[in-house]
Amino acid sequence: MRTILFTAVAIVISSSIVFAADVMELPTTKNSVTFPHKRHQLKLADCTKCHESSKGGKIANLGKEWAHKHCRECHHELKKGPQACRDCHKKIATKK
User: Fold this and answer.
1) Is the pLDDT of residue 16 over 50?
2) Where exactly are the structural domains of the chain?
3) CB neighbours (10 Å) of residue 71?
4) Architecture of domain 2-91
5) Secondary structure of residue 33 in the 3-state scheme
6) What does pLDDT average to over the chain?
7) Which of the chain's ends, N or C, has fewer CB atoms near its CB within 10 Å?
8) What is the pLDDT of residues 29-76, one digit of tens each?
């Protein structure tokens, strides 16, 4: 019974990782922010760090204020990942 339960849990976890977007482009007014979702999912292994439930889904209030509060706070706390503005916000090439 334990083997079946373990296998079922492993399948659910691995399938959510497989179907998650690898990299997401987050729109901003001035600069582009690329978010490596799969990398965060593998390192954190807890969707509720960002999402309302362990099943993931859209983040209701995702925007500048939310990202600056949650993302920056987490990066500072873990002392990992981008911590300066320019580390996340890459200048968008302007077309002439």
Assistant:
1) no
2) 2-91
3) 18
4) Alpha-Beta Complex (3.90)
5) strand
6) 77
7) C
8) 677 788 899 999 998 888 998 999 988 888 888 888 888 899 999 999
Task: Kindly tell me the number of DSSP H helices and DSSP E strands found in the chain.
Answer: 4, 3
Q: Which helix (H) or strand (E) holds 34?
A: strand 31-35
Nearest CA-CA partner of 48 in 70, 33, 72, 20? 70
Q: Which among 30, 27, 39 is positioned nearest to 86, based on CA atoms?
A: 30
Give the helix/strand (H/E) hosting 19.
helix 2-19
d(CA 75, CA 17): 21
72 to 3, 36, 68, 75: CA distances (angstroms): 40, 15, 5, 5
